Amino acid sequence: MPTLAAAEASNAAFSPSYIPVAVFAGGTSGVGQAMAEALARQTNGRAHIILIGRNAKTAAEILARFPKPADGDVDSDGWAHEFVACDAMSMRSVRAVCAGLRSRLQRINFLVMSAAGPKGNSMSECGETSEGLDNHLSMRYFSRYVYSKELLPLLVRARGKGQHAHLMTVLGAGFGAPIATTDLGLAEARRRTIKCLQGVMFSVAALKAMIRGVEYNDGLVAWFAAQHPDIAFTHILPGQVRTVGAVLDPGWLLAPLGWLMTRLRSLITVSQDECAQWMLYALLDGERGLFIRDSHGDIVSSHVFSPDHKARFVDDGSATARKAGVLNGVPMKGYGGSDATVAGLIAYTEQVLGDIK
């Protein structure tokens, strides 16, 4: 495990000859914001950084604090710091943002996805978006899938130029929970939500969605890493971070428990700026392949697909294809997918997203 000082030293060595293009989906708060700020400081503003989020006012305040390249610095042509508005609970909105970025960007070097919703840890709220998706999964999985699929051509271009090309999803890597095979969208779980005291809910469905999001992100990086073996894909655990979104909300019925857990977490959490150094350390590491990483950027497990490999996640009936924690026949610590469950997840995802026009 690298110390904080070691991570900061490693990050300080990042000095590319080109202007890096970094997109932070969820970059107006929490870990995503802190990572964007850390990259801006490290490059002295000599980067094209795009924050995607919902709050334009907050984004403007963040961008105003970014350092700017010195006037007359001829090596800084192409730098920009900008905000793009998006409601990540709407796949139509995410697709529109991706289309806009593809139309005007030549490449993307870093794509970081960290948005978990305004109440991403709420166990008292569950429901569906206007597009029929689970509220939690829309932010924690579906939007990230769309960003990945739609923006990967720009990462491919960056790699083709011999530059960094890294996709990172920040959520809950390393637990190795098997990917579900039934009720993938949690419609049945929502129907069975436990209700009490005139509709105030302790939602089993919400808790399931939070766990499923972690499982599904393992499948997401595995699927795309297999299709693009020359690019780095990381699912990383941020750990316990002091951010607004990290506050547990179990509903008012269990409010005392939530208050106690929040107080206890304050004793074991790190600031989002400290967390960002380890996340940035991981982002700038790893040239290609799939990486499952812990909260200090350490590699829990990794797999590099052969250059001629094509994604073939299928349920061929074999024990290997159905065994959780095995990728392409290789055991992976902290990874919960199997070739069969990833195939089922992606087929379901494509079907659901295909119905949203």
Automatic annotation (TrEMBL):
InterPro entries: NAD(P)-bd_dom_sf, SDR_fam, Sec_Metab_Biosynth_Oxidored
GO MF annotations in UniProt: oxidoreductase activity
Keyword presence, Oxidoreductase: yes
Keywords carried by this UniProt record: Oxidoreductase
Name of the featured protein: NAD(P)-binding protein
Provenance organism: Mycena venus
